[in-house]
Amino acid sequence: MKGNIAIIDYGAGNLKSVANALRYLGVDSAVTDDPAELERAEAVILPGVGAFPKAADKLRRRGLDQALVAQAGRKPILGICLGMQLLFDRGEEVRDCEGLGLVSGHVSRIKTELKLPHIGWNSLTFPNSSPLFKGLDEGTYVYFVHSYCGHAAREEDVLARTDYGVPVTAAVGRNGVFGCQFHPEKSGEAGLTILRNFAELNH
């Protein structure tokens, strides 16, 4: 399988595991913090772990926020975990903070009586169909690590949900921009299927 995917390095991502998963699939990828590389790539992955405001600030300092917005609609983009949250208009972690605005909605702490952070395997339901989940059945399990979740303004942008005492948005998508709250690179065969589907979107 071919592909030229830019994995954004802004000091807030588990880059190695994402790159290793793509390498396993035979997909070419490069870890980069150069906005020009996003222009040259066929697709872009925005990983991330940590707090929303700090990550958003790092993206802006490097000009990667504008580069991402410029590529949206031109090539597939996938946000993972915090990377998905950054796709929204704003986040409420630590302080109110502006996001990339590629998916309408906001990010807030999960209002559940269960223990946070939510760590572990949970099953997915698919309220709207998407090529990202081609070949996966309802009830597929994937791996989560988070305390905050996205709330899409448009129901049609919600591609997957899970349950953690309350419904939790697990994946979103809009105009070739996708986000997974879970970690596909840590989700076994199901996660590899998702990454393979993403890599094939431009082919």
User: Strand share of the residues?
Assistant: 25-35%
The strand order across the widest sheet is: 2-1-3-4-13-12-11
Shape estimate: globular
What would you call the structural class?
A: alpha/beta
The CATH class label is: Alpha Beta
Question: Architecture, according to CATH?
Answer: 3-Layer(aba) Sandwich
Biggest β-sheet: count, sense, barrel?
7 strands, mixed
Question: Radius of gyration, rounded?
Answer: 15 Å
- Please give the share of residues in helix: 10-25%
Low-confidence stretches: none
Tally of helical segments: 6
The number of E-state strands comes to: 13
Number of domains: 1
CATH homologous group name: Class I glutamine amidotransferase (GATase) domain
Mean pLDDT: 94
Helix and strand pattern:
EHEHEHHEHEEEEEEEEEH
Task: Describe the protein's architecture and organization.
This protein is α/β, with parallel strands linked by helices. It has a single domain, classed as Rossmann fold (3-Layer(aba) Sandwich), CATH 3.40.50.880. It contains six helices and 13 strands. The protein has helices at residues 15-24, 35-40, 52-61, 64-71, 82-85, 188-199; strands spanning 4-8, 28-32, 43-46, 77-80, 88-91, 97-98, 103-109, 118-123, 141-146, 148-152, 158-163, 167-174, 177-180. The strands form three sheets. The protein has a seven-stranded mixed β-sheet, with helices on both faces. Strands 6-5-7-10 form a four-stranded mixed β-sheet, with helices on one face. Strands 8-9 form a two-stranded antiparallel sheet. The mean pLDDT is 94.
